[in-house]
Amino acid sequence: MRDVSDELTVGTRLARAQRGDEAAFAELTEPYRRELQLHCYRILGSLQDAEDLLQETMLAAWRGLERFEGRSSLRAWLYTIATNRCLNALREGSRRPQPVASPRSSGQPVSERFAEISWLEPYPDLLLEGIADAGPGPEARYEAKESIALAFVSGLQHLAPRQRAVLVLRDVLGFHADEVSEMLGSSPASVNSALQRARALLESRVPVQRERLAVPLTGSERQLVDRFAEAFERDDIDAIVALLTDDAIVSMPPEPEWHQGRGAVAEFLRSRRHTRKGPWRFVATAANGQPAYAYYLQSGGQWVRSGLFVLGVRGDGIASITRFRDDGLLGRFGVPQTLGDSEPV
Q: How far is residue 212 CA from its own chain's centroid?
């Protein structure tokens, strides 16, 4: 429960901010910046776009603060701005799942739910710190860690923008239908209808049994991912494949190519080994609440950061490997740009 003195402090800061005090505005909004950026990421699937939309949200909030009447909480008001900014960006960008090549599979049936999202980017766990303190509302259906998992965020991108926003606001953040209808300028009935369609579509694309969605690893699972990294560093493809589930998937956004099944993955890894120059090294990190490894390739006498593997883990092995190239985002993961030969991994 919020202390009365805290309420008075917020009220005083709000009054100062509405009179043009930028420092007071920063003090009011700073506690919400990380969760708002994560909200934008869930809807957009891109860390870079989420960072841009957060800045747009804060600028719009500053410009419109005089019109904030306090009928909702400041947090809900900021979420209203962020959500509508994201929806506008989606309408302007017309982002939809792109047609992809068929996977190279071991003959097992493949669902459309694994279609690649070309703009998908990983989200550093370093940016999740402190967000859990906000806590989801009472109507949330997903745990905080589940709703940041790569499979979950990827699944969201297959929903229509409005469905995406409604599901995140209701089932992830736990806002009431009346609150969401006011945020989106619609009726509660319209919100509930969109939510039901969104739930059905998402559940068809993110089956819970496929992999554990971003929950703390058990001791045996931690050993599993450590052995995976060690096998990759040795280029021991047989050992890598032995750690996979039968239906494991390898994907590489934004490339459309992806592979499902141990046989297909083994064939892909052997073909890539011949095109990659030299060995590589791995440094442990975390993305989307999941184990991840930054990988380094040799160049000019040093190890240069080149990309990121994000792993989906299931009880019987590694269920997914998603590879991202280093396009400048990996600096946010707290891993160095280069490694010395003697530097510990």
A: 15
**CB contact set of 21 (below 8 Å; sequence gap of 6+):** none
CA distance 266 to 259: 9
DSSP assignment string, 250-318: EEETTEEEEEESHHHHHHHHHHHHHHS-S-EEEEEEEETTEEEEEEEEEETTEEEEEEEEEEEEETTEE
Name the one residue in this structure whose structure tokens are 């008075």: 8
Q: Tokens representing 9?
A: 């402090």
CB distance 166 to 198 below 8 Å: yes
Tokens 């494949």, residue located: 241
- Three-class DSSP category at 210: coil
**Whole-model pTM over 0.90:** no
Query: What would the pLDDT profile of 297-318 be if each residue is shown by its tens digit?
Result: 988 788 999 999 999 998 889 9
Q: Give the pair of three-digit tokens for residue 145.
A: 């860690």
